[in-house]
Each structure stands twice: as structure tokens, then as C-alpha cells.
Amino acid sequence: MDTQFEYVFPAIRGIQAGREYYVSMCPLRLIPKIFLFDEVEVELVPELRAQRILNHSRVPAMASYLIENKKDYVFSSITASVNGLVKFEPLGEKGDASRVGSLKIDMNSQFIINDGQHRRAAIEIALKTRPELGDETISVVFFIDKGLERCQQMFADLNRYAIRTSPSIGVLYDHRDERAIMSKAVVKQSKAFKDIVEMEKSSLSARSRKLFTLSAIHSANMAIINGREYENVEEVIELCCIYWNEIYKHIPEWRQVQEGKLTSGEVRQSYVHSHAIVLQALGNLGKEITKLPKAQQKERLNLLNELNWKRSNSDQWEGRCMLGGRIQKSSSNVALTTNFLKQRTDLPLTPEEERLEDAFNRGENGH
């Protein structure tokens, strides 16, 4: 190199599509210094950018994850293109020694992040709170920059087959969030959900033997405990188990699926109570019901015995959890279904719920 100022990274050399690339471990403190966020690029039209615009709303949560889990976090590699002078000096000429060595990059080089710009921004914020994280490392994959078109193609290729994990498996594999731990315990301990919960997928096929997804139950549980103060997770596990087991008494089809008397497909096709929107509305109902003395809770929930849960009962469900006979799950559908359940269990509506109900009734009457 002609310059006397250079970055030196310990690196491993690899080959993809006939091109050399390099993998190195970089201290976190260097990440914000090497990979500068280009404010000018934000102003460019998409055709002239090498990456998408940073979504600032995503960064605080990622930074908090780093800060709060400094002994138990995982960040995947950053992938970057280097536009500048690059030289790899291997330890030897043959075998493994020829693939391990030092990657020297001119300090005047430009680095463009192809994948990981939000991780980079989160690292910068986290270091301000916990500077000791700066000595830890993150793997960086360096590609040699071949121009804007190549950088854009790399971004497209890196994201081409990226699939977001299902919400259910996100809850299933999360052993840190006590809310996820709570929902898994509720599924395991309650009679209501025994053997009828899909733990991995967040949608059910027509042939699935399960009635509910873990993600739907988790959302409903979050509705039950929303705004509630509790001392420990065991307290809310018990609260939710008691509530769902009481609901279970008034929906015989859930038990019949467990006993093999009905298939889950038959129940999902014929009834509304196994769908996520109604489960969410039952969670909203549970938030209010569980505030009452236990005797009153049972008394109110006994009123559900008179409820016709069949999808064919369009007088009750059409416009609330159904539209044209098909299950709908918009926020307004959830709210209208919640309203109906609260009215059937003699619970007062909030002013906002009353306004929504009035608008719904005006629509039904054609006014």
C-alpha cells in the first residue's frame, strides 16, 4: 500500500463465486468509527443508494437488548463492502496458513454496510451506556467493493431468502422474557390448552390437529395482564390458568377435540371461538373479569353458556369477528368482538368502546 495509515484485521480468506472475501473479528468500539452512517445518502433517490434508509425506530430496542443482556446476547455478523486499497497477507503460502492472516485496509477506504446497519447503530448507542462492551467483538464479513450496482445486488441477495421467524417459535425459544415463559407455562399447566396448541407455527393448516397457536395464546395472555402489577411470574401464570380453565368449562368443543370426539378442523370451520381474534377478545375480557372477586368472576362467565359460538350465527358475529362469513382480525374487529363479550357478561363498556359500538349499530341499521 502507498499509504502509511491502515486498518489491520486478523482475518480468514474465503472464496464465493470466484471472488475473495474475508472474515474478521472487530472490537465493538471500532464499529461506529469504521462504519460511518452517511447522512448524505439518505437524501439520494433509492436508485443511487447502496442500502435502505436506517429505520431509527428499530434501534432503541436493539440497543436495550445489548445493554440489558451484556452477559447473554447474540449479534450476528455485519456484512460490508470495502471501496479502497485492500491487501491480505497470509501466514504462509500453502494449506490453512494461506487462508489465515492479516487484512490491511487503507484508512481512506469507504465502508458500506450491506447487512447490519441497525446492529451498527445499536452498538453505538449501547457503548455510550456500557463502554466496557467495546472490548467485545462482532464478526465482520468484508467484500471488495465493485461499485454501486454490485453493492445493491449484494443487498438484494443477502435479503432474498430471509424469512422472519414465526411469532410462535419466537415465544417458544425465548427463555429470557418472563412473559414468554409465562405463556409457555400456561399452555403446559392449564386444562384448557392441553394437547391442542401448535407450538411452532403461527398459522394452522386445514389438517392440523391443533386448535390454537402459541402466539395467539401469548397475545391473549398479554391482554389479560396488560397494566396489571404483579410480584412474580408464578402469580400471573396462576391467574391466567384459572381464567382459561374457567372459560374451558363453557366451551365444550375444546374438550371434545382433546377427547377425539371432534376434529380441530371441524371446530375451526364451524365455530368462532378457536380463532385468534376471539381468543384475543377473550383475553381482553379476562383483563376485566379477573379484577372482580372470584365468586363474581364465575357468575359472569356462566353467562357464556348461553352464547352460540357457531359461525352460522351471523346475527351475533357478522361485522364483529366475521365479514361476509369469513373470519377477520383487524383491531376494530377485535374491539367489536370484545364489546360483545363484555355486554354478554354484564361488564360496562368504556366511553371509547361505547362510541365504537354506537358507530357499529348505526351501520347495521343503515343510518
What are its keywords?
367 residues, alpha+beta, seven-stranded mixed sheet, two-stranded parallel ribbon, 11 strands, 43% helix, elongated
How is the secondary structure organized here?
Blueprint: E1 6-16, E2 19-27, H1 31-34, H2 39-42, H3 59-68, E3 78-83, E4 86-90, E5 100-106, E6 110-115, H4 117-129, E7 137-144, H5 148-160, H6 167-172, H7 178-189, E8 197-198, E9 212-213, H8 214-225, H9 233-249, H10 252-258, H11 264-270, H12 276-289, H13 294-301, H14 314-317, E10 322-323, E11 326-327, H15 331-344, H16 351-364
Parallel strand pairs: 3-7, 8-9
Antiparallel strand pairs: 1-2, 1-5, 2-7, 3-6, 4-5, 10-11
Helix pairs in contact: 3-4, 7-8, 7-9, 8-12, 12-15, 15-16
Describe the protein's architecture and organization:
With 367 residues, this protein is an alpha+beta fold. The protein folds into 2 domains: 6-160, no CATH class; 167-364, no CATH class. The chain is 43% helix and 16% strand. The protein is built from 16 helices and 11 strands. It has helices spanning 31-34, 39-42, 59-68, 117-129, 148-160, 167-172, 178-189, 214-225, 233-249, 252-258, 264-270, 276-289, 294-301, 314-317, 331-344, 351-364, and strands at residues 6-16, 19-27, 78-83, 86-90, 100-106, 110-115, 137-144, 197-198, 212-213, 322-323, 326-327. The strands form 3 sheets. A 7-stranded mixed beta sheet has the order 4-5-1-2-7-3-6. Strands 8-9 form a two-stranded parallel sheet. It has a two-stranded antiparallel sheet with strand order 10-11. A hairpin with a 2-residue loop joins strand 10 (322-323) and strand 11. Helix 3 (59-68) crosses helix 4 (117-129), helix 7 (178-189) runs parallel beside helix 9 and helix 12 (276-289) crosses helix 15 (331-344). The longest helix has 17 residues, at 233-249. Residues 40-45 have low confidence and may be disordered.
